[in-house]
Amino acid sequence: MSNITIKTAEDIAGMRVAGRLGSEVLDYITPFVKPGITTGELDRLCHDYMVNVQGTIPAPLNYCPPGYTPYPKSVCTSVNDVICHGIPGDKVLKNGDVINIDVTVIKDGYHGDTSRMFFVGEPSILARRLSEITYECMWLGISKIKPGAHLGDIGHVIQQHAEKAGYSVVREFCGHGIGKIFHEEPQVLHYGRPGTLEKLVPGMIFTVEPMINAGRREIREMGDGWTIKTKDRSLSAQWEHTVLVTETGYEILTQSAGTPPPPAFIVPTAAPQAIDA
Ligand code: MF3
Ligand code: CO
Ligand code: CO
């Protein structure tokens, strides 16, 4: 039996607000991601913006799932071969680095969880391609979301696209249901087979957040209890949106003025289209 919650209209309204605010933290931090800044300074800027400007709570701060030590910072900063959960600190960003910044805010009890990739100065050809393919993976997965589709449909298209490009999908971490709870059912695997796993129903809310490695999929856990790196030290990329299953398809909840546009292959179907006069 599944324990996937179906959100009420009130929940969905709250999740739209939290999602927009989470995305606005990424908009805010974007101009600061430059050579010479430290990941700790990025964390401090995000923290102060959330707490003092938005009146949101940074969900990661002191977050402590079973088997973990409390997470010590307000965002995750995952640079180069760090797959996820990089802890901000003294690391100075340099030209050519790639960084994922993962933000989760809590507003009125609801969580908005989103991450983007950023290039520090000029990226390598590989870093640019890995980030682009990963972005397409996220969007291909999202494009499968509609009532009656299965979670396995999402994982399948993500895995297909990543592996066709010569990359690999991280298996140990996945997307997740989200609402008043940061991580809840279902698990959203970024690999799999079409038609398998849970059937989607309007009112479900979950994240799609593929972690794609340029090399092999195996991971290494660092001694800080959080940071996850690629075992072969290859680059890794990740993008994340929080998404609602609607009656006709999906709605991206983590949207704001600075949200990057979807890839060209995405045909909007979820909402009625405006007709130019
Ligand atoms: N935001 C991450 C996710 O997408 C979770 C980070 S947990 C933390 O699920 F404690 F590391 F912040
Ligand atoms: Co998430
Ligand atoms: Co996240």
TrEMBL record:
<feature type="binding site">
    <location>
        <position position="102"/>
    </location>
    <ligand>
        <name>a divalent metal cation 1</name>
    </ligand>
</feature>
<dbReference type="InterPro" id="IPR000994">
    <property type="entry name" value="Pept_M24"/>
</dbReference>
<protein>
    <recommendedName>
        <fullName>Methionine aminopeptidase</fullName>
        <ecNumber>3.4.11.18</ecNumber>
    </recommendedName>
</protein>
<comment type="function">
    <text>Removes the N-terminal methionine from nascent proteins. The N-terminal methionine is often cleaved when the second residue in the primary sequence is small and uncharged (Met-Ala-, Cys, Gly, Pro, Ser, Thr, or Val). Requires deformylation of the N(alpha)-formylated initiator methionine before it can be hydrolyzed.</text>
</comment>
<keyword id="KW-0031">Aminopeptidase</keyword>
<feature type="binding site">
    <location>
        <position position="113"/>
    </location>
    <ligand>
        <name>a divalent metal cation 1</name>
    </ligand>
</feature>
<comment type="similarity">
    <text>Belongs to the peptidase M24A family. Methionine aminopeptidase type 1 subfamily.</text>
</comment>
<dbReference type="GO" id="GO:0005829">
    <property type="term" value="C:cytosol"/>
</dbReference>
<dbReference type="GO" id="GO:0006508">
    <property type="term" value="P:proteolysis"/>
</dbReference>
<feature type="binding site">
    <location>
        <position position="85"/>
    </location>
    <ligand>
        <name>substrate</name>
    </ligand>
</feature>
<dbReference type="GO" id="GO:0046872">
    <property type="term" value="F:metal ion binding"/>
</dbReference>
<feature type="binding site">
    <location>
        <position position="113"/>
    </location>
    <ligand>
        <name>a divalent metal cation 2</name>
    </ligand>
</feature>
<dbReference type="Pfam" id="PF00557">
    <property type="entry name" value="Peptidase_M24"/>
</dbReference>
<keyword id="KW-0645">Protease</keyword>
<dbReference type="InterPro" id="IPR001714">
    <property type="entry name" value="Pept_M24_MAP"/>
</dbReference>
<dbReference type="InterPro" id="IPR036005">
    <property type="entry name" value="Creatinase/aminopeptidase-like"/>
</dbReference>
<keyword id="KW-0479">Metal-binding</keyword>
<feature type="binding site">
    <location>
        <position position="183"/>
    </location>
    <ligand>
        <name>substrate</name>
    </ligand>
</feature>
<feature type="binding site">
    <location>
        <position position="176"/>
    </location>
    <ligand>
        <name>a divalent metal cation 2</name>
    </ligand>
</feature>
<feature type="binding site">
    <location>
        <position position="240"/>
    </location>
    <ligand>
        <name>a divalent metal cation 2</name>
    </ligand>
</feature>
<dbReference type="GO" id="GO:0004239">
    <property type="term" value="F:initiator methionyl aminopeptidase activity"/>
</dbReference>
<feature type="binding site">
    <location>
        <position position="240"/>
    </location>
    <ligand>
        <name>a divalent metal cation 1</name>
    </ligand>
</feature>
<keyword id="KW-0378">Hydrolase</keyword>
<feature type="domain" description="Peptidase M24">
    <location>
        <begin position="14"/>
        <end position="247"/>
    </location>
</feature>
<dbReference type="InterPro" id="IPR002467">
    <property type="entry name" value="Pept_M24A_MAP1"/>
</dbReference>
<comment type="subunit">
    <text>Monomer.</text>
</comment>
<feature type="binding site">
    <location>
        <position position="209"/>
    </location>
    <ligand>
        <name>a divalent metal cation 2</name>
    </ligand>
</feature>
<dbReference type="GO" id="GO:0070006">
    <property type="term" value="F:metalloaminopeptidase activity"/>
</dbReference>
